[in-house]
Automatic annotation (TrEMBL):
NCBIfam families, A to Z: GGDEF (TIGR00254)
Listed InterPro entries: Diguanylate_Cyclase, GGDEF_dom, Nucleotide_cyclase, Rev_trsase/Diguanyl_cyclase, TPR-like_helical_dom_sf
CDD domains given in the database record: GGDEF (cd01949)
Pfam family, one: GGDEF
EC number: 2.7.7.65
Originating species: Actinoplanes sandaracinus
Keyword Transferase among UniProt keywords: yes
Full protein name: GGDEF domain-containing protein
Length: 498
């Protein structure tokens, strides 16, 4: 039984509206959802319908109605403590914030959506589509790596519900990744991704698995490849037709026609089309029209204008590079953790669960956290991290400066950990790190980041003449039935300088 089947009212109407949206037909889905809301009394049914209505308005680009729709959906979801509904609502809210060019609010919703969907116990089709929508939100906001991770999660959950992996092809994610590479100067990388999308289209046509809403995405990928002078046997113009009623589809059709004019060696016509019809910067990024202008000018032989347009496209792209976004995402996650701590004193307010010096969770809270993680059947990487040179600090400079060193180390760890990770002060100068769902590769990357951040600190200004470093070791909890004590012992035994 799927999540939707558990609702008390209008299940078939809601399923029909959902099928329309998945096929790119949000306009006819809206009156169905409005009719459900006019008669439904069950809180869960109303919350689901309001969330889906919010998503339909986003698809149609009706930005003026989003604030009221989100407020209604958010209020309804608060009354129904369901992680799927909360995750789906926040995924749509991230897309809505993107349409309104509010990056800060969009990133906040991304973090909240990811955490809510990760807490859904069922592996049904609705949850799979929730991960799909979160992947799209990540992609539109420019977090391409997180988008690929989320779409893999959608495929995994969907497979448990009997859905073919092709249903979650999501070519738009890779298309945005491709054009982002081109915006940053990696045209060869862009072409490699576009060729992969072309090959994928051929495979899906052979198996009849192509979603109608993906037509214009494939069409634009083909047209963009042709504009770069890379021949393809596929007919881009054919795929730029149809594809639904979304604002994204309309913009892709127009930009695809621009690309085909470039490929047909009509650069002046392409430039005129770019000037005549403005497109949203939210579809393929603000640099895309500038990059197309550069290709037009180059095709016309005006290399000075092409260079100027390219520089402008690159400058726009540099404002939103992934490294900056990743750091911003982690920072917002840390801020949400702090807000949750203040909001929920029943869960976090007990001083016996916090270390008074650093403000981090203490050993007792660590044990509760890991017990909860194991009870859910999850696994995690466990790291033990201690301060190299701490004894010397206390001997030479006194315990007060030793405390300041520990506070600064706590800040370093909190700053560089991934979103959703857990950091505790275990004892003395020893800290414990918990990375849910992580394996050795992710643990090694976190260890590298911690070491780099610790080395970048100005320790000489705080404790002159006393070098400070960190040593860490890693193990796993939940693997082969391993509990916290055994994992900590294994991690401690493998400690080495980071």
């Amino acid at each position: 039984m799927s999540w939707l089947d558990q609702l008390a009212e209008h299940v078939e109407d809601l399923r029909r509206a959902g099928d329309l949206q998945q096929h790119g037909q949000s306009a006819p889905a809206l009156p169905i959802l409005d009719a459900v809301l006019a008669s439904a009394s069950d809180p869960a049914t109303r919350a689901y319908a309001l969330v889906q209505r919010f998503g339909a308005l986003i698809n149609l680009g009706r930005a003026g109605e989003l604030a009221a729709a989100m407020a209604a959906a958010s209020e309804a979801v608060r009354e129904v403590p369901d992680p799927y509904l909360r995750g789906q609502m926040h995924a749509f809210a991230a897309l809505g914030a993107h349409l309104q060019s509010n990056l800060d609010r969009g990133v906040t919703h991304l973090v909240q959506a990811s955490r809510a969907l990760a807490a859904v116990p069922e592996r049904d089709s609705e949850t799979a589509w929730g991960w799909h929508d979160l992947a799209m939100a990540y992609s539109y906001l420019g977090f391409h790596g997180q988008a690929l991770t989320a779409i893999e999660q959608a495929r995994e959950v969907g497979a448990s519900a009997g859905l073919a992996s092709e249903v979650f092809a999501a070519p738009g994610i890779r298309l945005r990744n491709a054009v982002a590479l081109d915006h940053q100067g990696d045209t060869d990388g862009c072409l490699r991704v576009l060729r992969d999308i072309d090959a994928e289209l051929s495979r899906y046509l052979a198996t009849d698995q192509l979603r109608p809403g993906s037509r214009t995405v494939y069409g634009y990928a083909l047209a963009r490849r042709a504009a770069l002078g890379d021949a393809t046997a596929s007919d881009a113009a054919r795929w730029l037709t149809g594809g639904g009623d979304s604002a994204r589809t309309r913009d892709l059709r127009h930009l695809g026609s621009v690309c085909l004019s470039i490929a047909a060696r009509r650069p002046q016509q392409a430039l005129a089309m770019l000037e005549a019809v403005p497109v949203s910067a939210e579809v393929l990024g603000a640099p895309e029209p500038a990059r197309l202008r550069s290709i037009c000018h180059a095709s016309a032989g005006d290399h000075a204008a092409a260079h100027a347009a390219d520089r402008y496209a690159f400058r726009l792209a540099a404002l939103r590079i992934d490294q900056l976004r990743d750091g911003y995402l982690d920072g917002v996650a840390a801020r949400l953790d702090a807000q949750e701590t203040h909001r929920d004193p029943g869960r976090y307010g007990d001083e016996t669960l916090a270390d008074p010096l650093t403000g981090l969770p203490n050993r007792r809270q660590l044990e509760r956290y890991v017990d909860s993680l194991l009870a859910r059947g999850e696994r995690a990487a466990i790291g033990v991290c201690d301060v190299v040179g701490f004894t010397t600090v206390n001997m030479r400079h006194g315990r007060h400066l030793g405390d300041l060193v520990l506070q600064r180390i706590a800040g370093v760890l909190h700053r560089v950990m991934r979103r959703g990770d857990f950091v505790a002060r275990f004892a003395g100068d020893e800290f414990v790190l918990v990375l849910p769902g992580a394996g050795p590769h992710q643990a090694a990357e976190v260890s590298r980041r911690i070491g780099s951040a610790a080395m970048a600190e100005n320790w000489q200004a705080l404790v002159p003449g006393t070098p400070i470093g960190l040593a860490s070791g890693w193990s796993e909890v939940g693997a082969n039935g391993r509990g916290l004590s055994a994992a900590l012992a294994a991690a401690a035994a493998g400690r080495k300088p980071t």
